[in-house]
Write a structure and sequence with these properties.
The chain is α+β, with helices and mostly antiparallel strands. It is built from 2 helices and 5 strands. It has a single domain (9-90), classed as SH3 type barrels. Helix content is 35%, strand content 35%. β4 and β5 (50-55) form a beta hairpin. It is globular, with a radius of gyration of 13 Å. The protein starts with 8 loop residues before the first strand and ends with a helix.
Length: 91
């Protein structure tokens, strides 16, 4: 599997298949519903289970913008470019 083009999906018990937008922290990722991309979830993993927290579109956008700033400051241009592309398509 090519890590540059790999996509991550998880199954939410109510909303079905979710698509990973971005890693936010070591154990936190931002996901959205696969087709509509209108519902956003902060997914936290503790190694044994996943915790889903629904968040609004504005909050999700701010989280991705913060992640983009962090990537730009760290000089990780490849990951920055990939996330910028996802950001443009999603928001």
């Amino acid at each position: 599997m090519n890590p540059e083009t790999s996509e991550t999906y998880i199954n939410h018990p109510t909303w079905g298949l979710l698509y990973k937008i971005s890693m936010l922290d070591d154990n936190q990722d931002l996901f959205t519903t696969l087709y509509a991309q209108r519902l956003f979830f902060l997914v936290t993993s503790d190694g044994k289970s996943l915790k889903f927290q629904s968040i609004g579109r504005t909050e999700a956008r701010m989280m991705v913008e913060n992640r983009l700033r962090t990537l730009r400051r760290s000089g990780n241009s490849q990951e920055y470019d990939q996330l910028q592309s996802v950001f443009q398509r999603t928001f």
